Amino acid sequence: MTDCQETIRDLYQYLDRELTMEEVCEVQAHLNRCPSCYELERFESGVIKLVRRDCSSEKAPAHLRERLLSVPRS
Questions:
Q1: What's the 3-state SS for the chain?
Q2: Burial 10-26 (b: 16+ CB within 10 A, else e)
Q3: Are 26 and 2 within 8 A, CB to CB?
Q4: For position 31, what pLDDT does the model report?
Q5: In sequence order, what are the residues at sequence separation of 6 or more whose Cβ sits closer than 8 angstroms to the Cβ of residue 4?
Q6: How far apart are CA 6 and CA 49, in angstroms?
Q7: In the prediction, which pLDDT does 59 show?
Q8: What is the count of structural domains for the chain?
Q9: Which portions of the chain are predicted below pLDDT 70?
Q10: Which domain holds residue 65?
Q11: Longest dimension (CA), the chain
């Protein structure tokens, strides 16, 4: 059983679809029984949709993209 603290810790990975199927099921089960966490998930999901809608049309300048791609990854 997942509690609020664990659900909130995993919420952004859940919204970004980065959890395993088992973890997704745990988060969803908690959201179905916890109105507070459900409201937080709805709010954060709305923010993500808004950012995608309003910020996806602009692209970074070519020189910035090249600079970011040239940074060594750890």
A1: CCCHHHHHHHHHHHHCCCCCHHHHHHHHHHHHHCHHHHHHHHHHHHHHHHHHHHHCCCCCCHHHHHHHHHCCCC
A2: bbeebbeeebeeeeeeb
A3: yes
A4: 97
A5: 30, 34, 36, 37
A6: 23
A7: 78
A8: 1
A9: 1, 74
A10: 4-70
A11: 48
Number of neighbours of residue 29 by Cβ within 10 angstroms: 13
Amino acid present at 29: A
35, amino acid identity: P
What is d(CA 39, CA 11) in angstroms, rounded to the nearest whole number? 12
For residue 74, what pLDDT is reported? 67
Among 64, 54, 24, smallest CA distance to 41 is for 24
Q: How far apart are CA 45 and CA 73, in angstroms?
A: 29
Half-sphere CA count of 27, side-chain side, radius 13 A: 22
